Amino acid sequence: MKCEKSLISIIVPIYNVEAYLDKCVASLIQQTYCHLEIILVDDGSLDDCPQMCDDWAKKDSRIKVIHKQNGGLSDARNAGMSVATGEWIAFIDSDDWIENDAFEKIYLRSQADKSDVVSCGVKWVKEDDTLINEVTVSQEEVLDTKSAMREIIVDGKLKQHVWNKLYKRSLIADIPFEKGKYHEDVFWSYQVFGRAKKVSLMTESFYHYIQRSDSIMGESYSPKRLDALDAMYQRCEYVKEIIPNLYGEASLGYINSCMYHLQCALLAKQPSNVLQNIVDRIPYCNKKTVISSASKKQRIWLNLFFRFPVMTAQLRNKLKVGI
After folding, report:
1. In which domain, by residue range, is 297 found?
2. Where does the Glycosyltransferase 2-like domain lie (predicted)?
3. Fewer CB atoms < 10 Å away: N or C end of the chain?
4. Could you give the residue ranges of the DSSP H alpha helices within 73-220?
C-alpha cells in the first residue's frame, strides 16, 4: 500500500461508547490513505472503552491512546490536538464511522485546490445504518473566506459540525474548543473559517453520522442549549470586526435562533426564568440591522417578535412555523 507524504492526525473523543467504538476505529485503520496518526482520547469512560482503546493500539502502531479524567467533548478534542503531529487534522465522533476511501479522496482534493479546509457530505443514519437523510452540496466548489463565513452564518453549504472536515493543523492549532459548552462546534467553527483562505466542498458523503436517541443532541430541549445563542452572539461580534458587511446576516441568524429557542422552550414547558433568559438576549443585536437584512416575510415576524417575543413564539408554534 502506498503511503502518501502528509500525515493526517485523526482525533477520536471517546466516552462510554463500547457498542460503537470497534466499528469507528475499524473504519479508520482500513483507510486507503495509510499515513495516519489515530488519536483515541478516552475521556474517563466507565465502560470497556479504555481497554478497547489499548487493545486497538496493540494491533496498529499508528494508534495513540490518551486516558484522562472526564472533561467533556471539548476537553477531549483539545487533549487530542495537544499531541497531534500531523500536517492535517480531522475529528471523528466515536459512535460514527467513515467510508474506507474517505481520507484518500479528501486529501487529494485539498492538494488539487490548495485549500485549508475540505468538507464532505454526511449520511445521517440509524444505528443499523438505515439512511435517514443525506446532507451534501449539489456541486463541488472552492469558497474564499467571506463566502465560507457566509455559508456558516446562513447554515448553507457549510455546516457547524467539525467531524466531516479535514483541516490544516497550522490553521486550527491555536483555536481550542470551549470546555463545558453545548454546541461547542458553533463556538469554534467561525474562528476557523474567519482564517481559512480556501475551503473545498465535496459532493460525496463519506461520513456516517449515527442518530442515537441517547446522544447529547438526541436529548429533549434543555436550557443548556442556550449556549448556542452565546456562541452566535460571539460570532456576530467577530464578524463585525473582520467581515463587517456580513454583520447584518449574522445578526439576523442570531435573532432567528432566539426566536427558535423561545419556541422550543415554550413547547418544552420550560419555567419562566428560562423564557426570560432568552427574551433578555434579544436586544444584543441592533433591530434596524437585523430587519434590513431580512426578507419581507421575515420582517413581519421580526417586527412582532421585537415587540411581543413570547406571544410571537406562541403564535408561530400554533401555526407550526419554524419548528
Report:
1. 220-319
2. 9-140
3. N
4. 73-83, 102-113, 145-153, 169-172, 184-193
